[in-house]
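Lay summary. Proteins are chains of building blocks that fold into shapes, and those shapes determine what they do. In this project we predict the shape from the chain. Here is one chain we studied, written as its sequence of building blocks.
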Amino acid sequence: MLRKILILLIGVIFCFVFIFYSTEKIYAQEEPGIKSKLRVPDANSVQIITLTDGSKIIGRIVNIGENDIEFKSDIGVMTIPVLKIVDIREVPASSIKKGTYWFPNPNTTRLYFAPTGRMLKKGEGYFADYYIFFPMAAYGITENISIGGGFSIIPFIDFGQQIFYLTPKVGLKAAESLNLAAGALLVKIPDFDNGYSPLVGILYGVATFGKEDLSFTAGFGYGFEGGDFASKPMIMLGGEARLTRRLSFVTENWIFPGVDEPLISYGLRLFGEKMSVDLAFINIIGEGIIFPGFPYIDFVFNF
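And here is the predicted shape, written in a compact code that computers can read:
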């Protein structure tokens, strides 16, 4: 059985990686109104110009003419006709490392299952899929409030017998490198005997310390079933460290009340500007540990 699951996950991984690299090309398409984007940036910003031949140049506009611009890069000042420019993007100077643009991490609001203290911006959202059969979507209602949810798509089970889940979240930026959030995971699990099926879930609080490329997240949550809450909280500790332009290491670890063996997870996050794929392992620390652990996979597409 485990062998079949591994073969299925490997096939899904190849599909996700293909989609990942295909969708990256979408965001290099020509946009109208290039002239309206032209400006001389301040010292804290740099610009990335995409030309009609697909090449990209990193630097700053130093002068804007009627039909061309003067653009200063590492190789000097060059004159570029406006008609040759497909796109121009202004980014923080700190995002340029060794002459390469490191785009922002597209998946900062979650580790694997657990949320971070960071919030979606107003109007931002994402579609995610966990283990193929558990899709969800989330949307930023305001800078401080987001809502997400979905339902399982387990084969050969009627829609009414699927698992439904909702994830409201509120948060704020308490300091330059500190984000705080609170929320809930609400789950409706079907009762196949057509009896009473109470709402279960977790009420949580979480804090994220650090910057996008290197952060630590700590949180706690109280599980509940119906109106009954657990007497002790579960604890979550995790973090993310960006290794390269397109790769991060992510870990998420849980300590459950009354359980002696903590649950750990670790793996890699492959990402582009709008999509990420997590390839990880889940395990326990104790006598039942099996290295490297049970495979975990998800993907997230931002919109």
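What the prediction tells us: Residues 1-9, 24-31 have pLDDT under 50 and may be disordered.
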